[in-house]
Amino acid sequence: MMAAKFNTREIVTFFILCFCWGSTFITLKEGLGTLPPLLFAGLRFVLAAAVFGIIMLARGQQLTRPTSDEWRRLLTSSLLVITLNYGLVFWGAQFLPAGISGLVSFASVALWLTALGLLSRAEPVRPAVLIGLGCGVFGFALLILPKLGDSPRQVLGIAAMFAAGLAHSQGSLWVKPVLKKHGALVITMIQMAVGGVVLLGLSAVLESPDITVLQGLREPRALLSLVYLVGVGSLLGFWLYNRLLTRWAPSQVALYTFVSPLVSLSLGALIYQERFAGLEVWAMLCLLAAVVVNFWGRLTAQHPPQPQQHVSSETP
């Protein structure tokens, strides 16, 4: 059995982290009412990267020159973790209620990380893992199948979120070897800068934003949403996440993936009066159960690894 020692401050930090990342889907929905998704995502990460760069300069922290292989991993992971992942998340969130967006996004990451771990044999095959994956697949089927004829745009949104989870998970695994050498802050700053710039380039080509669109940034809902995503979702969330990683095992910190969706669903119901009925409720229960079973199986089946810094599993 995995022994864990938590104090009150760490538990409070954990739940603040869950609120930070769970609440981002509410503000994301607000901003998408004004800004196109790729432009919105690109602005978020370019601004966040700039702030991280300022923090690095203030600390006198310098980047150790990566090798050619490390640069290849950094660039590839930037395109996967930031550009492809968040491009799909922001695009898919247009078509989904805020609560379901958060749930599907968090569940996708958790399930893909587990599936890729099994395929690479980094994750031992255990009954809890297989049951969790089965619950997840069944939950996604329940969520998608009833919408095939009535809500094709919601099906596209869910599919985009699911694909985003694969991009995030693969990119996180790809960059892992360079994290210990360069540190999480440096790696995240590079990923956000590269991925954010590519998102802005894609926006210029695919969305062709004109001066009218850019003037939308002056609207309070768009500006506040952008500030919240940068300040709370990226900066505060990242800091809290890595603070916990210095005290808890990564598998314990990863428990945010089944607390944060509850925040998204609760805020969606409270702020947007989102209501779910029938198969949607069962689908959401299956997805939550999948994440809980997967991570609970890890917590009870292995000894805690030494806490280490690695790339943030942040979602929007």
Number of strands: 0
Low-confidence parts, pLDDT < 50 over ≥5 residues?
303-313
Distance between the termini: 33 Å
Q: Look at the structure and give the mean pLDDT.
A: 85
Largest sheet geometry: none
- The number of helical segments is 13
Fraction in beta strands = under 5%
Structural class: mainly alpha
Shape: globular
The percentage helix is over 70%
Order of helices and strands: HHHHHHHHHHHHH
Radius of gyration: 19 Å
What is the compact description of this entry?
The chain is mainly alpha-helical. The protein has helices at 8-32, 37-59, 68-92, 98-119, 127-144, 147-150, 152-182, 184-206, 211-215, 220-245, 250-253, 260-271, 279-301.
What does this structure look like?
The chain is mainly α. The protein has 13 helices and no strands. The protein has helices at 8-32, 37-59, 68-92, 98-119, 127-144, 147-150, 152-182, 184-206, 211-215, 220-245, 250-253, 260-271, 279-301. The radius of gyration is 19 Å and the shape is globular. It starts with 7 loop residues before the first helix and ends in a 15-residue tail after the last helix. Mean pLDDT is 85; it is low at 303-313.
Give the SSE map.
Blueprint: H1 8-32, H2 37-59, H3 68-92, H4 98-119, H5 127-144, H6 147-150, H7 152-182, H8 184-206, H9 211-215, H10 220-245, H11 250-253, H12 260-271, H13 279-301
